[in-house]
TrEMBL record:
Positions of the ABC transmembrane type-1 domain: 75-265
Protein name (record): Sugar ABC transporter permease
Keyword Transferase: no
Gene Ontology annotations of biological process type: transmembrane transport
Topological category with respect to the lipid bilayer: Multi-pass membrane protein
SUPFAM superfamilies linked to this entry: MetI-like
InterPro entries: MetI-like, MetI-like_sf
Organism: Guptibacillus hwajinpoensis
Transmembrane segments: 12-35, 74-98, 110-132, 144-164, 185-211, 244-265
Amino acid sequence: MKQKRKNQSKAGTLPIYLILIFTSLFSLFPFYWMFVMATQPSAAYNSIPPTLLPGGKLVENFQKVLDTIPFFQAMWNTVLLCTVVTAAVLLISSLAGFAFAKFQFPGKNFLFILILLTMVIPPQLGLIPQYYLVSQLGWLDTLMGAGILFLLNPLGIFLMRQYISESVPDELMEAAKLDGCSNFRIYWSIVLPIIKPAFATLGIIVFTLVWGEFLWQFTVLRDPSSYTLQVALASLNNAFRVDFGMLLSGVFWATVPLIIIFLIFNKWFISSITEGSVK
């Protein structure tokens, strides 16, 4: 009887696994096709039937990228920008989330709602005044100007508030205060170790967001020495002729660091998701 139920259970889960496998392959196909196009000449982009097997021009196409734009300088600028912004967002969001989750102060709920409302405002609406402020501060063509808008992250504050509310017991904080710990000491010694999974999740989100940002970086960065990858790759798009092999080769190598970052923090990222479901 038990064996029969086990067989029925396996038969019931088989379609689910097949759907998951198909969905995974469908999601990964754009990355595979990008790699294939990065190894092909430009003419293969419009070939019918489409080319689905890698070619032998990966190195040649990437060499064209290096000859056209300062790729490694742009990658260094992007990595530096994303790292600094991510670290700043994690610090600011966790401190703000800690305050909103565990402290009482006048206007707390109103301020929190106000922060969340900024998420529904399209960033294009503030482009002109933000550009004016950055230009007046003298931050054009600087990584400071490219990253300043991302330091206050409403989503990060919301995630940290929710995670800290559910994961940090009030009794633990009260015990720490009885031992003479200051609020910052409680944050540093108790809250931070508990919210590491949330840190990994928010870190991946912010790092990916800043890495893929184009409009604001394209607006404030005009000097090629200050280009990030997105702005540098955009300069490969010639108005009269586009070398798709070269362009997608640059996009492919610009995507590799993101994959590495995800693989490094994948364990904590999944941990934060499963922990919420277990709770």
